[in-house]
Design goal:
Oligomer: single chain
Shape: elongated
Number of helices: 3
Strand content: 5-15%
Radius of gyration: 18 Å
Strand order of the largest sheet: 1-2-3-4
Helix content: 55-70%
Structural class: alpha+beta
Length: about 90
Amino acid sequence: MPDNKKIIWISIFIALLSTIFISNKSTTFGAPFQWVTFYGKNDINNFFSLFTSKNFTQTNFNIGILAINILLIYLVLFFVHKKFKINVSKRKEK
């Protein structure tokens, strides 16, 4: 069970970190699905400018899509981790 907790925390971290580095048309942020949308007149240069007092009121955070992103990342990491553990245990048996 501790491995699952680590994987979920890593999934949350990756989903939040993806908003900083992955943008689409400089108005939507996040990966694999964009969960932060900016509806202002001007394009913004980076993710951190969304949190200025002028831009924050024009920003939409879709928490449902964030949860889906975390779930997808978790499933990928879980199955990769599970596959790696199986391979390691099979190597030890030989």
